[in-house]
Amino acid sequence: MSEYVSLLSCSRNTRELGGIKTVNCGFTRNGVFWRSDTLGTLSAEDMEKLLSSGMTTIIDMRTEAEVKKAPDGTAELEGFDYEHFPITEGSGVPESLEAVPRSYMTIATAENMPKVMKTMAEAEGGVIFHCTAGKDRTGVVSAIILMACGAEEESIVSDYVVSREYNKERLAAFLAAHPEVNRETVFANEKSMRGFMKLFRERFGTVENYFEFLGLTAAHADMIRQRLIGTDEFTEKLSAFLSDFGSGRTMVLSTSENDRVSSRMMSVVRIDDGFYFQTDTELRKYRQLSANKNAALCIDNIQIEGVCEETGRPVNSPDFCEVFRSCFKGSYDAYSGLENERLFVLRPAYIQRWVYSDGVPCIESFDIPARKYSFRKYSEYNNTYRGDSL
Question: Domains in the chain, ordered, with CATH?
Fold first, then answer.
């Protein structure tokens, strides 16, 4: 059986907007927003699933003609708040793949988009928002919501392109009936979403600016953010730690290969919850990281353990260049543009910091995969470290 199964039997592309990685190692919540394609006639099981999940507000973004052709299955049912906010802008098939991002911008600035976003922010229960295929209009709304929550670009793109799998049969039938259409314009292509996000950032800068453009307020963006990610002790404490860390520090990087450990000072910058550094492909640390991606960064009373990923040349990452140049201009000018220089990011799995509280030594720990936070006096630590002696 395919892993791409809609949450509802009356649709093909209904899925959670939960479980998507955000900044500070967080994830979006399940049971808040579902994205979907057309909702047909609900089965008894569909009804029970929607009501038990609290998904009672339905936002239908299809045109009048689309609704007339395939009425929404919840429109006349008790227990649901059905809202029809037709978005006609960008509802046609773009003439080329390059035109898709511009089409998505017309969707983002559509006349009824303020109603969509206001309803999502203010709805009392869970919200299902949908168009016909759950890809274009729904994909744009999903991307904006996830940007508001600080989701990584890769996570947003991944959430978008998976519509290709859910819609395989539908799109195959459409292309068979319309052989003149460029298949790349109707399949969810990552270039389309990356292009849209680039245009969105260039025009609005932030999601808060976008909401003000819609005639709403930054508070509406925050309401969506609070609904979908909320706050807990782990998130609050990790946010405080990352803020204390700042944008950049000189740290010791420890790597290993074949039981040989090497350590050296590195210029490290933080972007969201990733720790970035650059190195030459001819150096030992590059070879060690290629063979063993597990590494640790240390400074003073802080240790950050995680897995490193090579992301390309430093000069090809505008975000890195901006932060690194502001923190380490000498290193940036001397090394970042060299042909052999490569950029790495360490994604933390475990962070430990020694702090003093009222003069008492304490250990603050973040277990990232488990999302567990602890703060204990050293005298209460019982000489244990993940089951091993300190």
Answer: 15-230 (3.90.190.10), 241-380 (2.30.110.10)
Structure tokens, 43 = 């089965």
Burial of 133 per CB tally in 10 Å (0-12, 13-18, 19+) = buried
- Out of 24-28, 42-46, 182-186, pick the least confident: 182-186
Comparing C-alpha atoms, which of 188, 124, 193 is closest to residue 153? 193
Encode 276-324 in three state secondary structure: EEEEECCCHHHHHHHHCCEEEEEECCEEEEEEEEEEECHHHCHHHHHHH
Which among 279, 268, 267 is positioned nearest to 313, based on CA atoms?
279
| Residue written as token pair 């460029």 | 182
pLDDT in tens, 271-282: 988 999 999 999
Q: Are the C-beta atoms of residues 183 and 175 closer than 8 Å to each other?
A: yes
Residues 223, 227, 228, 231, CA torsion sign: positive
| 315 vs 339: CA distance, rounded Å | 10
Residue 314: both structure tokens together? 């430093």
Measuring CA to CA, which residue among 187, 166, 196 is closest to residue 38?
A: 166
CA dist 145 and 159 (Å) reads: 12
The answer to whether the beta carbons of residues 162 and 69 sit under 8 Å apart is no
Least confident window among 32-41, 95-104, 325-334, 338-347:
95-104
